[in-house]
Amino acid sequence: MDKIKEQILALLENNGRLTYEELAALVGESVDTVKEIVKALEKEGIICGYQALVNWDKTNDHDVSAVIELKVTPQKGSGFDDIAEQIYRYPEVEALYLMSGSYDFLVILRKAPMKSIAKFVNQLAVLDDVVSTATHIVLVRYKDHNKILFQNKKDQRMVVSQ
Predict the structure, then answer these.
(1) How high is the pLDDT of residue 150?
(2) Cα separation of 104 and 80, whole Å?
(3) Which of 62, 91, 107, 161 has the largest CB neighbor count within 10 A?
(4) How far is the C-alpha of 118 from the C-alpha of 35, rounded, in Å?
């Protein structure tokens, strides 16, 4: 991949709302060239989509996010791929990663009531190749997609002195 494509990808990864004109100015290319590159990257599936990063902690939303560590038995012939396909087809799954280390998959669930997360974990736990699960509830998102979401609040305790 050439350097211009990498620059465009890095810029869009950081800010998907950049216009073709802004991208062209930042990488020193014409607007038409940048449009062609972006469209080619979209067609190749390198750019998979554009979305907003929402800080749900600043809304009245009470749903929670969860991370599930999953240990499975790989299948003969397909390894982890068929199991992964079974899992990522659940609409509750936002992201799924094959991991090295003490567990095989990291499943990320976002924005669901606790009952829904519990129900999903029960569905996952009974799949044929699942050996064990460990579910963690996200308490605070400090940083996500390279954006700091947490703002330290000033100490609002009253000073008492004699």
Answers:
(1) 81
(2) 9
(3) 107
(4) 45
